[in-house]
Amino acid sequence: MVDIAHRAAIKGASASDATAPRARNLSDTAPLVPLASVDLGQWQALSAQAIEPNGYYLPPWELAVSATARGRTGAMALRAVSTSAQLIGLMPVVSLWRAWKIPLPALVSAHPYGTLCSPLLDRHTASEAAARLLDRARDAGAHALILRDVALDGAAMRSLTPISTRDGLRPRVLSSHVRASLDATQDGDTLLRDALGAKKLKELRRQRHRLEVHGPLTFDVARTPDEVKAALETFLQLEASGWKGKRGTALIQHAGDASFIRRAAPALAETGQCEIISLRAGTTPVAAGIVLRHQDRAFFFKLGIEERFAKYSPGVQLTLELTRHLCADPAVASADSTASANHPMINPIWRGRLAIGDVLIPLRRNDRMVTLIHAALVARNAALDTARRVLHLIRR
Questions:
Q1: Sequential DSSP letters for 248-273
Q2: Interval 148-185: pLDDT, tens
Q3: Predicted TM-score of the model (pTM)
Q4: Element at 114 (helix H, strand E)
Q5: Predicted pLDDT at 395
Q6: Which of 202, 265, 210, 203 is nearest to 236 (CA)?
Q7: Which tens digits make up the pLDDT trace of 305-357?
Q8: 11 - beta bridge partners?
Q9: Terminal Cα distance for the chain, rounded
């Protein structure tokens, strides 16, 4: 089957397009356009007033992902444009075939490396933006829109669900889980004491003292583009030195992934939307992490540790410092761990929970094609669950 995203992108202009006013130029009216062709100023303006933060759909990040990241290139833009030609909604997408090799006509939110795909909707016109996104997906020939890794209780889904229901289209949750989040409005030390308890904190202090034998511990935050560039290289080396390097999943091990993060992190730092945190024992880096910021929310993207110091829990020590850092910042109200469900490191520390799931939104009533799409996705999820259980048994 022809990839519907590709088909829309290469659709030629008709005679009426050639004689239409400028506002009806193909680039303005096409249901889908290449992500890189979206007006950067309008995208940035939409990000600033989005109803729900998503650091992974900020322009510098998602454009870098779509340009070079392994398995994530070539995303298209599903756009909602107001009658005054303002961008009020944006969802990077790929076809169902590109996403999961299923040859059925549906669009899927493009995966931005971080595990959050909530679309950007203008907070002042969220209902209109949601309705227009669904209309444009229909115009592209899709029979369903699939949002993967979306915040189920987030403002974006709260805007999309009533529009779908109003049109007689019932969204279906394909899978869901909860992951750790942080209420950063609390005092950091109080939050950690309540979360971990006196006994666990005493054990962590003991490990910290043992780590200090190798040199005084310092927690650093790289903020400027130049600082972020330098700190990023330290992070990349730490990540590759651990289990991710052994599995071949460290960012620096793949040219496209390394190119994406080296482009995205400093670019976001220019607007104060990326920090790289690190913990050092003397002059030796023992842990580092990448943190994105969007509006009043932080996103803990990745963590790397020096495996030689693993018995001192450097990743936990860094996360404790990050918790204090975010709680002390009045500009941050919450943080999304963007971690997997039941993550053994961060779940005990960040006790808030965020519901995340994959949601299928039908685009036409009583559509048999949607039944086929839903069945194919259910079968795929079942196969993945079986594979995960087998892999878990093998690794035990």
A1: T--GGGSHHHHHHHHHHHHHHHTTT-
A2: 999 999 999 999 999 998 888 999 999 999 999 999 99
A3: 0.91
A4: none
A5: 63
A6: 265
A7: 999 999 999 999 999 999 999 999 999 999 999 999 999 999 999 999 999 99
A8: none
A9: 41
Q: What is the pLDDT of residue 16?
A: 32
CB 332 within 8 A of CB 293: yes
Contact criterion met (CB below 8 Å) for 38 and 32: no
Which 8-state DSSP code applies to residue 57? G
Quote the CA–CA distance of 373 and 392 in Å, as a whole number.
29
Give every CB contact of residue 142 below 8 A, 6+ residues apart in sequence: 4, 105, 106, 107, 363
Alpha-carbon torsion angle 13, 17, 18, 24, nearest 10: -120
Give the number of C-alpha atoms closer than 13 A to the C-alpha of residue 297, restricted to the C-beta side.
Answer: 22
- Show Cβ contacts of residue 230 under 8 Å, excluding neighbours closer than 6 positions: 222
Helix (H, G, I), strand (E, B) or coil at 213: coil
Is 16 exposed, middle or buried, given 0-12, 13-18 or 19+ CB atoms closer than 10 A? Answer: exposed
* Other Cβ atoms within 10 Å of 331 Cβ, number: 11
Burial class (CB in 10 A: 0-12, 13-18, 19+), 163: buried
Tokens, residue 328: 């002390």
Question: What pLDDT shows up at residue 393?
Answer: 72
Beta bridge partners of 130: none
Low-confidence ranges of the chain (pLDDT < 50): 1-26
Tokens representing residue 319 in the block: 């996360």
Helix, strand, or coil here: 372? helix
Half-sphere exposure for 366 (CA within 13 Å, toward CB): 0
Cα–Cα distance list, 392 to 214, 328, 346, 387 (Å): 36, 39, 20, 9
Stated length of the chain: 396
Amino acid identity, position 233: E
Q: Do 224 and 271 form a contact (C-beta atoms < 8 A)? A: no
Amino acid at 7: R
Q: Which tokens hold the place of 89?
A: 């909604």
